[in-house]
Design a protein that fits this description.
- By secondary structure, the protein is an all-alpha fold.
- It has one domain (3-166).
- The protein has six helices and no strands.
- Helix 1 runs antiparallel to helix 6, helix 2 runs antiparallel to helix 3 and helix 4 (87-122) runs antiparallel to helix 6.
- It is elongated and about 65 Å long.
- It starts with a helix and ends in a 16-residue tail after the last helix.
- 22% of the residues are buried.
């Protein structure tokens, strides 16, 4: 296995493992929601923290899980014409159309997200709610997730370019070395 293949497999593993790790955030999200409903409607004692916790954890799940979804090539796309193309032309469209748009979007998300998070940390920004937690750690989840998505997109771009150059390996799905069921 070449160095490039090992790097691509490492990015796949990082995307897979980060997605699996944040999937466990569903447990505290559901727990906080159930706790809030019980506290509010059974004891007439709503919490001041549950909504913000749910929003923060669900946002982290969404953005960090984006790399896992990118690994599975599961992001939404308009496939009306794309599905009728041969595997080679699908790869050409991914390299020439999808990838530039992807890198533009993720690059802006990474750049702007880092700026917002940094400014929030410098100011020790708080939410402004009754609970009023510090929110800069949560804001750093955005550039972290964008970086993970960028790395996975870059790995897929390299595979697509290699497929066009060599004429081999035109599969659309994730790497064969990683089993997403693990």
């Amino acid at each position: 296995m070449s160095l490039l293949d090992r790097l691509l497999a490492a990015v796949d593993t990082l995307s897979l493992r980060s997605g699996q790790a944040v999937a466990f955030l569903l447990l505290p999200i559901c727990g906080a929601m159930v706790f809030e409903v019980i506290a509010r409607y059974m004891f007439n004692a709503p919490t001041i923290w549950s909504t913000e916790i749910v929003v923060m954890l669900a946002g982290a799940l969404y953005i960090i899980g984006g790399a896992y979804t990118q690994y599975l090539r599961g992001h939404i796309s308009v496939d009306t014409l794309y599905d009728y193309l041969s595997p080679r032309w699908q790869t050409v469209v991914r390299v020439a159309v999808h990838s530039p748009l992807f890198f533009l979007y993720v690059g802006i998300l990474l750049w702007e997200g880092t700026g917002f998070a940094w400014e929030s940390m410098i100011e020790n920004e708080r939410s402004g709610s009754l609970w009023n937690p510090v929110i800069w750690p949560y804001k750093f989840v955005v550039p972290l997730g964008a970086l993970l998505i960028f790395l996975q997109g870059l790995a897929q771009f390299v595979r697509d370019v290699r497929a066009l150059v060599t004429g081999e390996d035109l599969r659309v799905g994730p790497s064969e070395e990683i089993d997403p069921e693990l």
